[in-house]
Amino acid sequence: MANVHANVITAELGTHLRKHVAACLRLLDEGATVPFISRYRKEATGGMDEVTVHAVQMRHQELTELDKRKEYIIDVIKERDMLTPELQERIMETLDPVVLEDIYLPYKPKRNTRAQAARALGLEPLARMIMAQNSSDIEKQAKKFAKEAGGIEAAIAGASDIIAEWVSESEKARNLVRSRYQRSATIKSKVVAGKEEEGKNY
User: Fold this and answer.
1) pTM of the predicted structure, to 2 decimals
2) In this model, does residue 168 exceed pLDDT 80?
3) Regarding the domain delimited by 2-107, which CATH topology (the fold level of the hierarchy) does it fall under?
4) Which helix (H) or strand (E) segment is 147 a member of?
5) Whether the predicted pLDDT of 3 surpasses 90
6) Distance (Å, rounded) from C-alpha 182 to C-alpha 185?
7) I need a labelling partner for 24 at 20 to 30 A (CA). Which of 39, 89, 145, 194 fits?
């Protein structure tokens, strides 16, 4: 994957030719240290200083870990017989670990959840009806599932659990919430009672 990493890092750096980045990666993979490369291999790396070589090294390590994670995720989805060429392409092209986990989330094996219990009771059709928001009488719709669920309220609660899982696993919804928090979230802190002395510097 070193060739792919060289392409990515070259684009991200924007200051060195690909052949220089590739040479730096090759030297790192051969065991050369950051100080050695920056001092004695400037010709090969296009004059990279120690800061740049270290940045290349760190990004190379991040991309290597990301590659391992991608392989694992693809194997898991393949075992579940849910891997499509389009999904595999999205996974392989992703460079952001957060985005990768968002893609994986709907396919991730789950422990027993309330949503799974609700599905076992046959409440997914009710969840779809509620999610569609095209009925003005949810209780009337839920009545059809009341016997299996143990009552109308229990049916609605189970359907709500399924909807909550759908929303939490929605890549679009997660990106929307994340972007809004990044734009407008406010972080507040206060000193814990009894820790005034330790907290005064912060």
Assistant:
1) 0.70
2) yes
3) Arc Repressor Mutant, subunit A (1.10.10)
4) helix 146-149
5) no
6) 6
7) 89
